[in-house]
């Protein structure tokens, strides 16, 4: 197990026989009408429940649970930190007399507005994994990247999240995003307190599906609910904050406009797989196991609030690569005498170019068609598409 | 799916759980969100004696008793509330009128809310502490109601509601609850009692309006007070600042630069561009201040009101060093606020400028000086105040400036603004609005400062109370005590309860089986005696010496065993630790411990058995210590001598009893010990002390009471052994408590402190001051002798003493061992052990020593309680250092006042016969300024400022009246030589030396001392005037 875990970031292959894999793949790749094991449509997400502000001690928190019992809790903590590059304090304080003197320095001021990606720290805890295992590290990096990379220039968040973390030239916030993922079998006891969750984590098996989308959505909600204490000091002074939590400001500022409350939102990352010509969203674990390609697509609302914006696409090493191939009857020593197998039609696998024997599982060798990727992106970004649907769903969650 | 959020709706207990969320910024710079859960309860009592319900539900202590109820069942009524009332003040009411709440004439039965108390703590720590002590006293019936914890009165903050609004709502909620609760409760009780009205006191207009809507009685502080008797006096006690600011509003004239914001100051302090320190003001020039900051050796100079920017002596300020071209030299002029700003009108502010024309002139002259001179007049780093970290405002004693009351003094009860001149010259005059200006003239009054806004030249304050007429004994003594923060109220009952129940009949137990004898050695057979000043009642120490069979001597110092009677942490101990020391005034002693202990049970009176703490040495005939021993003991003093009596007895060859012999041995040893100490480099310092013996009858010249202290050999006898005991004990407790031993150190003064004096000496007398070590200093001081002028040496010693730092108590862990040194005594370690009756430090040292020798006490529990916690000890050290200093100041001020009074009495007596001509004495010039000199008069131990008009020039008419002399000032001019420390005063237009007088530093001059009444605008004030009548060379 351990060696396998190390081998691939997405190597959560369930124990499925080659025949089952082949069956699954065949039904998923049925042209235009894939049949998913749980009967969902290709773009349908599993039902989930979400809530925010579950951890009172954090700056912001959220929880999302899938119906299968997989859950993620995200807590966001912020800490004030001295900006390392601000070494020459005296130099700065000389400047600060001129602070606010005019726009002449604005150019320099812009520079100072640029935060650093390293100010956002993310750690993911998945039961059964050490925190330095490849999977948690890879996942956290994959989620952190669009977070710090997305730059919404206008609506109140200059320089994106990084810029928002800048307090002044010498001080900034450091954000700690802690993600905890686990399977929770609902206990109908009425009163469940958090402590029992934490204890359960130790007993839990691995999550049932590739956890990226779950984590991403939860992180999204947690960040939305995150507040930072209101700054009372000005300019280049050492930061000094209002002690009233009620006046704390959202990390992702909200502005009230004619259209209602509009808000800069953190990005979400969706997991998409392809099987044959079909594009399938929110794959479960079995579906991923047979996917031709696995893509993590990060999107965010466009700055004007209408359209969607593609932030990044990352290919994820498909776990199907590591599955055991099935042996066609023709090659099978045990069934060598059987001639029926040899007569079976040979289909060429489009993605691997290899001979494909129907009903016999061949591990996917990776590679995905350009058109498929284009199709995926289009499905996500188009008006009324999956991306919008997801974001609208998230916006429906009451935050704060 | 089950929500993770703490859902309270489903919980039947939920309504009593709530949480409080806030942001906490730690010192290390962390910013945390803190969530506290509150569990509301219903058993917090209303504490009204009317209520029959609460006593049954109130929480009980371990003995099953409930806390006694505070609020009276028959609260006082007013015209508006004839059936009695309880007050519920909000935070602003307390901020504006704390003095009212402390007033004994009104404001009883007050409910203080937890919400209000916490808010007050955030806004003003001193007021918070005052409120706490109010709550603790029983008389005023203040009840602290924990409204936030009681279910019915807890208030949830609404959405978008500010904290202030929420807290105001909490106050109103409590008021309503009290009303309903009391009404319900009394009805149930079936006793038809009148329910007192619950009156909210708030200065927030919005809150008053809302209260009206909610049917809660609410009044503003001034409206409420107007309905009371004596409202004029009470109204004066409301803090002025707030309203005044509203009225002035946008009128934009700002006199002072704005203070930096706290965060800006912190940034600067951390970056090292700004500095923090305590602002102090020169006693000779009220416009000149200085701030000692950690970054520099010498204090930074702060010149002028602009730069001192509303700081008052004692404030902790943040300063910024000015550019070098704005540096100035310290002032060489005597500048008196009273003299310079005599004509200010307190009511008009329009034509007010921060620096009046006259002040500006005074400053300009200084700048000129700074530029044209070298040497002492060199410009020094000058800074300006940019912000104030902590105000150290207190209550100030002063009197109304008669010149400021204006013309309408007689026009009755109209409110007017007057200036109050504080007794402390370092504090600027305070603008006070009062309705009783006419009554207050000629009174010693107590005022506080409320605010000093940018648009006001002087701080604003309000009147607290009158101490009585100026120059009456009672008023002046109380003024002194208040001014030096001496706790002089009689001991409260809780303290007296700690005294032994036997009172004066307490005796050392006769049976040695008694627990009192546990761990005590029986030293009753030793020939012990005490030697003290005449009339001493609190005898701390007694001595004995006897020869041992081996030829060595046993010498014992026996100290009153105060720690036996004052147990750690009881009310008496806390009171004593607060008082810190006994304060001796000329006519009064303010005790640290109740009289029963100080003058009887602890005092080592002769002929009776007393508990003592003894230090016993075995000494060789050469006074080498062979061994030292410490023990608790029982002694019986054979005799209590005065210094004089002891001296006589020792000197009388016919006396050859054992007691006298033992005293002779002691004297002999003390001389050896003294010599050893001097050889080690102990300093023989001098302070200008005079003694006043008040028991003289009234017939004679009052001035004969004033005596300079005589030094007898027996003085030094006692002193040497006390020093020796202190040093021995210090070493012992330090070896046991390496971190917490309470020690006393006298830091080696930095050489630059002596710079001025050393310059002056070499210039004027060609004498060297070697400050490389205490030994060198002692030797060079010995060489500073002027054969013609025997007092010169003492004068130099007085001046040298002022260059040194003052000794301080500290906790062993606070300094490195090498820093323990007592510079003046040339001892590597020192503490105070020998006067536990009058000093708290000694009491602590007693406890530490007892613990160090394993003494267990009567109950075997006299452990380390209270003497081994360093942080606590450090707090105590800070306090007793402060109290000790203040006690000294108060003592000196008392003597000074007495001398002034004696002069006045003499003057009055003379006036009937010959007219007041003052008294002719010798004086010595201590400092030379550009427009005057400071003269020290040893006979009375006083220093007098001699201004221009007070120089009697040769050939001048014999003018003595103050007013007439003042006229002279304008006709005079001076030549001041800062290099040579000389001042030539002459009449304008007379170039010849006939009509001139020259004085120089250290010079002996003939002076005429008298007490004169200030005429005209400064009327009602008396000062000691020193006239220079002649010089001799």
From TrEMBL, chain A:
<dbReference type="GO" id="GO:0005730">
    <property type="term" value="C:nucleolus"/>
</dbReference>
<feature type="region of interest" description="Disordered">
    <location>
        <begin position="85"/>
        <end position="115"/>
    </location>
</feature>
<dbReference type="GO" id="GO:0034476">
    <property type="term" value="P:U5 snRNA 3'-end processing"/>
</dbReference>
<dbReference type="GO" id="GO:0034473">
    <property type="term" value="P:U1 snRNA 3'-end processing"/>
</dbReference>
<keyword id="KW-0271">Exosome</keyword>
<dbReference type="GO" id="GO:0000176">
    <property type="term" value="C:nuclear exosome (RNase complex)"/>
</dbReference>
<dbReference type="GO" id="GO:0000467">
    <property type="term" value="P:exonucleolytic trimming to generate mature 3'-end of 5.8S rRNA from tricistronic rRNA transcript (SSU-rRNA, 5.8S rRNA, LSU-rRNA)"/>
</dbReference>
<dbReference type="InterPro" id="IPR020568">
    <property type="entry name" value="Ribosomal_Su5_D2-typ_SF"/>
</dbReference>
<dbReference type="InterPro" id="IPR027408">
    <property type="entry name" value="PNPase/RNase_PH_dom_sf"/>
</dbReference>
<dbReference type="InterPro" id="IPR050590">
    <property type="entry name" value="Exosome_comp_Rrp42_subfam"/>
</dbReference>
<feature type="compositionally biased region" description="Basic and acidic residues">
    <location>
        <begin position="85"/>
        <end position="99"/>
    </location>
</feature>
<dbReference type="GO" id="GO:0071038">
    <property type="term" value="P:TRAMP-dependent tRNA surveillance pathway"/>
</dbReference>
<keyword id="KW-0963">Cytoplasm</keyword>
<dbReference type="GO" id="GO:0035925">
    <property type="term" value="F:mRNA 3'-UTR AU-rich region binding"/>
</dbReference>
<comment type="similarity">
    <text>Belongs to the RNase PH family.</text>
</comment>
<protein>
    <recommendedName>
        <fullName>Ribosomal RNA-processing protein 42</fullName>
    </recommendedName>
</protein>
<dbReference type="GO" id="GO:0016075">
    <property type="term" value="P:rRNA catabolic process"/>
</dbReference>
<dbReference type="GO" id="GO:0071028">
    <property type="term" value="P:nuclear mRNA surveillance"/>
</dbReference>
<dbReference type="GO" id="GO:0071035">
    <property type="term" value="P:nuclear polyadenylation-dependent rRNA catabolic process"/>
</dbReference>
<dbReference type="GO" id="GO:0034475">
    <property type="term" value="P:U4 snRNA 3'-end processing"/>
</dbReference>
<dbReference type="GO" id="GO:0000177">
    <property type="term" value="C:cytoplasmic exosome (RNase complex)"/>
</dbReference>
TrEMBL record, chain B:
<dbReference type="InterPro" id="IPR022966">
    <property type="entry name" value="RNase_II/R_CS"/>
</dbReference>
<keyword id="KW-0378">Hydrolase</keyword>
<dbReference type="InterPro" id="IPR041505">
    <property type="entry name" value="Dis3_CSD2"/>
</dbReference>
<dbReference type="GO" id="GO:0006364">
    <property type="term" value="P:rRNA processing"/>
</dbReference>
<comment type="similarity">
    <text>Belongs to the RNR ribonuclease family.</text>
</comment>
<dbReference type="InterPro" id="IPR029060">
    <property type="entry name" value="PIN-like_dom_sf"/>
</dbReference>
<dbReference type="GO" id="GO:0016075">
    <property type="term" value="P:rRNA catabolic process"/>
</dbReference>
<keyword id="KW-0271">Exosome</keyword>
<keyword id="KW-0963">Cytoplasm</keyword>
<dbReference type="Pfam" id="PF17216">
    <property type="entry name" value="Rrp44_CSD1"/>
</dbReference>
<dbReference type="InterPro" id="IPR033770">
    <property type="entry name" value="RRP44_S1"/>
</dbReference>
<dbReference type="InterPro" id="IPR002716">
    <property type="entry name" value="PIN_dom"/>
</dbReference>
<dbReference type="GO" id="GO:0071031">
    <property type="term" value="P:nuclear mRNA surveillance of mRNA 3'-end processing"/>
</dbReference>
<dbReference type="InterPro" id="IPR050180">
    <property type="entry name" value="RNR_Ribonuclease"/>
</dbReference>
<keyword id="KW-0269">Exonuclease</keyword>
<keyword id="KW-0540">Nuclease</keyword>
<keyword id="KW-0255">Endonuclease</keyword>
<dbReference type="GO" id="GO:0071034">
    <property type="term" value="P:CUT catabolic process"/>
</dbReference>
<dbReference type="InterPro" id="IPR001900">
    <property type="entry name" value="RNase_II/R"/>
</dbReference>
<dbReference type="GO" id="GO:0000177">
    <property type="term" value="C:cytoplasmic exosome (RNase complex)"/>
</dbReference>
<feature type="domain" description="RNB">
    <location>
        <begin position="520"/>
        <end position="855"/>
    </location>
</feature>
<keyword id="KW-0698">rRNA processing</keyword>
